[in-house]
Amino acid sequence: MYTMRPAKFEYHRPTSLDEAISLLGEVEGSRPIAGGHSLLPMMKLRLAAPAALVDLGGIPGLDGIEGNGDLTIGALATHASVLTSKIAVGIAPVLPETAAMIGDRQVRNRGTMGGSVAHADPGADYPTVLKALGASITATGKNGEREISADDFFRGIFDTALEPGELVTSVKVPATAAGTGAAYLKHAHPASRYAVVGVAAVVSVENGNCTSARVTVGGLTAPPAHVAVESLVGSPGSEEAIAAAAEKVPDSLPDPTGDTYASGEYRAHLSSVLAQRALSKAFERAT
Ligand SMILES: Cc1cc2nc3c(=O)[nH]c(=O)nc-3n(C[C@H](O)[C@H](O)[C@H](O)COP(=O)(O)OP(=O)(O)OC[C@H]3O[C@@H](n4cnc5c(N)ncnc54)[C@H](O)[C@@H]3O)c2cc1C
Questions:
Q1: 244-286, pLDDT tens digit by residue?
Q2: 235 Cα to the center of ligand 1, angstroms
């Protein structure tokens, strides 16, 4: 039976990271909450029933977006603040472009970077793009801080490398170098805007020829998967070469996930169409 009321829970609002980590270690059945845009719907549907919520919203200093060579985005930075960040546009422009595609204005104003990566929804956009860009996630727990590559962090459907009691505190994204172009495109679910399939392409070009090309596909497998597009290396990235390479993308991703909205076969087709468009855009940006 569905209900729109969550089960009873305690509510804590720590004012420091240390306090939040202590609470998560001490209060049995506790869970962090940030924007609440994934956790609260789950609680209302009784898919989650934490005994206590530890609200991260009162912790200062976790919502910054800083550029110091790389881009560092605090866990509490909302999707709206990523999409309007001039620093992010200057360092890794595909990330604010991705933020602009998430949900609707309300979701973007509440949802956070940390919540999105910790939740690891197979239809989420950031995991695909963060993997494509070679980002890393900083997790902080009672034993201190550790940095985990996005490749190791995202493990499967709603499954990450976070240990119990650990919090995502920031995400680090390498700067997109000159001569490198990145693009992300998705087929959005018409109701939620989640990615049915999302494809990120990253291409590097030197003296007019491609030196590396890779696409990362989300929504087809969990976690998002990389596909090396070797056939484009050494080529100037003609329309025909891109189309031929994109057509082969689904071959590297056997057993695509399907559901009532989109079969695995349809998603595989989408991955090829989106890969073609994303690669073309990435080439344009690299040259
Ligand atoms: C209608 C709708 C449409 C949406 N469309 C999209 C979309 O198109 N693309 C997309 O990518 N997403 C979409 N989302 C998801 C949205 O981006 C969520 O906000 C996001 O996935 C979770 O972020 P949050 O801050 O709301 O996290 P919360 O809901 O607060 O938490 C989510 C999970 O992460 C944990 N958590 C939160 N913060 C941390 C932290 N710092 N460290 C460790 N664990 C933490 C919580 O315990 C919980 O398990 C949509 C959501 C809705 C409701």
A1: 999 999 999 888 989 999 999 999 999 999 999 999 999 999 9
A2: 40
